[in-house]
Q: What sequence folds into this?
């Protein structure tokens, strides 16, 4: 899954969970059944999981282009800077 696909999956997850939670609450309130509300919401969570978790092809429309190993060897990794510990201490008078 590419970066745009992750963003799309996150957006879909939020929208679907919001729709199912509002819909479950409304239906549960109208028919007066807490059990039905929880079943509808649980079904929405399962549906949302099936839509957003697998790596579906429409989440991978912008694949990343990695460097070839030979090209990566031409550009060495940056080295960490060495910090000296010879700092002057301020003395109290």
A:
């Amino acid at each position: 899954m590419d970066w745009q696909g992750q963003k799309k999956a996150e957006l879909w997850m939020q929208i679907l969970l919001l729709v199912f939670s509002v819909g479950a609450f409304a239906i549960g309130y109208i028919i007066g059944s807490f059990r039905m509300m929880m079943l509808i919401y649980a079904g929405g969570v399962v549906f949302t999981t099936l839509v957003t978790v697998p790596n579906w092809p429409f989440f991978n429309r912008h694949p990343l282009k990695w460097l070839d190993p030979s090209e990566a060897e031409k550009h060495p990794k940056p080295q960490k800077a060495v910090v000296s510990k010879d700092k002057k201490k301020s003395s109290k008078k």
In short: DSSP finds three helices and no strands in the chain. Residues 3-31 form the longest helix (29 residues).
